[in-house]
Write a sequence for this structure.
């Protein structure tokens, strides 16, 4: 599958992502439950307000009926109608007192008989209802007065606030329930307050009576939504926690799967598991060792030596090849630098680079540090351009190659003739060597077409005054053919396989 992970996430980042994966279903679930709880509370508040309106209307029906029956008696002498007033109090539930009015003066009461008190129609909401905070008989006790008038006469019937507050308490046992009449409102504790209805924090529902001039507001206190959720949804919370743990575990596993290659390679880089192997390069004429190509090997603590084709392409794709090459150069300098005084001629050391190395000028510093580890003039550092990734001829790459040449570093095109960009590199970059791919060398004496291509490459290098290295030389016939065609350097199993540093240094003393 395509490799897309370019950098390892830190442990902290992975832990944060794992936590987020675990929290996501929990948070979403809690939000959904919260919305569901709000809907349930809204519905409950609406039902409570509706029932309260119905109950208050039933109570007012009795007071209104008493007022209608007493209204025709308005204007008659109080002594003649007192018994009728008291009869309505005893016959009608919830009616506390009845009164008659003439010319806006209350002149007869079921409680006191003859009485004199002015009546202000403006005190009554819509001329019908007045919520009072008591009267001289029962001060500071809520009282709801119903007024019915016709011409000069009128009837007043009162409803005890005790019955009103009972309705607010019993119906709104789990809710906040308020009764408003005009500018006054009654709470469940039986107290009358002035001013507009207060806002209820949760699920407020306000209903107006269609028959009488009052309003009911129902709702809940702050935090009721969470209390409702904790009471109603404990099994669902447990299920959400379970899903959160599962989601977090899946996120952790997915992260480890997606980042494990880069994580393992970075671990190996920090542990120094990428080590140099050296394959000798010999002079075409004398067959003496002229240098070596430095090849990267992964010495895994459990798997042993890992084949380069299993990790090099990923290292190039992920960008890890740059620090890996830097480590390889540092190890090579530490191993061969002390031997450089014994080199009788410049010793060629070839190191592969890719497009990732050509994105900035850091490679110049790496090469300068590498060369400083050797006796001046004792080596030729050859950077071999691989073609698995296309190197773009940008201003940075041109500056890079100019700086490398100024250091005395040589540039070679690796596997020349097999990549789509080989000829383009010749035209765009100032190179010093061509390396003939082993597929052409292997066809010497077998395939005439491949031999013609090989001859053309050799001829091209001579015309461009470029050095040439033939890779994959395994037989004496191949060696003789390349020598006869004046190939400068040979490399292959015929002269030596890639070997660890200790073996290479030991063999180098015999060449």
């Amino acid at each position: 599958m395509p490799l897309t992970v370019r950098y390892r996430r830190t442990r902290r980042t992975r832990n944060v992502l794992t936590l987020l994966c675990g929290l996501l279903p929990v948070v979403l679930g809690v939000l959904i439950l919260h919305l569901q709880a709000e809907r349930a509370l809204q519905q409950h508040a609406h039902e409570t307000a509706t029932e309260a309106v119905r109950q208050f209307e039933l109570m007012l029906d009795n007071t209104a009926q008493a007022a209608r029956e007493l209204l025709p008696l308005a204007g008659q002498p109080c002594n003649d109608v007192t018994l009728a007033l008291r009869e309505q109090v005893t016959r009608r539930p919830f009616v506390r007192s009845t009164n008659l009015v003439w010319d806006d003066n209350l002149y007869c009461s079921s409680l006191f008989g003859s009485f004199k008190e002015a009546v202000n129609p403006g005190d009554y909401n819509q001329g019908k209802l007045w919520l009072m905070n008591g009267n001289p008989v029962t001060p500071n006790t809520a009282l709801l007065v119903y007024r019915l008038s016709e011409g000069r006469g009128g009837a007043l019937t009162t409803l005890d606030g005790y019955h009103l507050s009972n309705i607010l308490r019993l119906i709104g046992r789990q809710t906040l329930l308020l009764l408003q009449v005009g500018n006054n409102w009654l709470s469940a504790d039986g107290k009358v307050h002035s001013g507009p209805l207060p806002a209820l924090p949760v699920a407020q529902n306000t209903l107006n009576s269609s028959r009488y001039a009052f309003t009911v507001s129902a709702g809940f206190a702050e935090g009721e939504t969470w209390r409702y959720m904790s009471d109603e949804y404990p099994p669902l919370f447990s299920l959400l926690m379970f899903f959160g743990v599962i989601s977090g575990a899946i996120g952790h596993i997915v992260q480890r799967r997606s980042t494990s290659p880069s994580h393992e390679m970075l671990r190996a880089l920090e542990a120094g598991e990428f080590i140099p192997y050296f394959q000798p390069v010999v002079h075409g004429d004398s067959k003496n060792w002229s240098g070596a190509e430095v090849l990267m090997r992964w010495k895994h603590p459990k798997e042993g030596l890992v084949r380069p084709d299993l990790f090099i392409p990923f290292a190039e794709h992920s960008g890890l090849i740059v620090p890996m090459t830097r480590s390889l150069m540092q190890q090579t300098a530490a191993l061969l630098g002390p031997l450089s005084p014994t080199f009788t001629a410049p010793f060629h050391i070839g190191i592969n680079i890719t497009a990732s190395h050509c994105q900035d000028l850091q490679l110049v510093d790496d090469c300068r540090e590498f060369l400083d580890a050797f006796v001046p003039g004792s080596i030729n550092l050859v950077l071999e351009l691989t073609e698995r990734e296309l190197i773009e001829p940008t201003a940075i790459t041109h500056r890079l190659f100019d700086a490398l040449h100024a250091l005395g570093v040589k540039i070679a095109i690796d596997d020349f003739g097999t990549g789509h960009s080989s000829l383009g590199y010749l035209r765009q970059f100032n190179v010093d060597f061509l390396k003939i791919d082993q597929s052409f060398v292997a066809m010497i004496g077998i395939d005439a077409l491949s031999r013609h291509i090989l001859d053309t490459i050799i001829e091209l290098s001579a015309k461009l005054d470029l050095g040439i290295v033939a890779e994959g030389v395994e037989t004496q016939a191949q060696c003789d053919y390349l020598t006869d065609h004046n190939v400068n350097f040979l490399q292959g199993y015929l002269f030596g396989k890639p070997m660890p540093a200790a073996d290479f240094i030991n063999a180098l003393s015999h060449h």
In short: The longest helix spans residues 11-70. The radius of gyration is 50 Å.
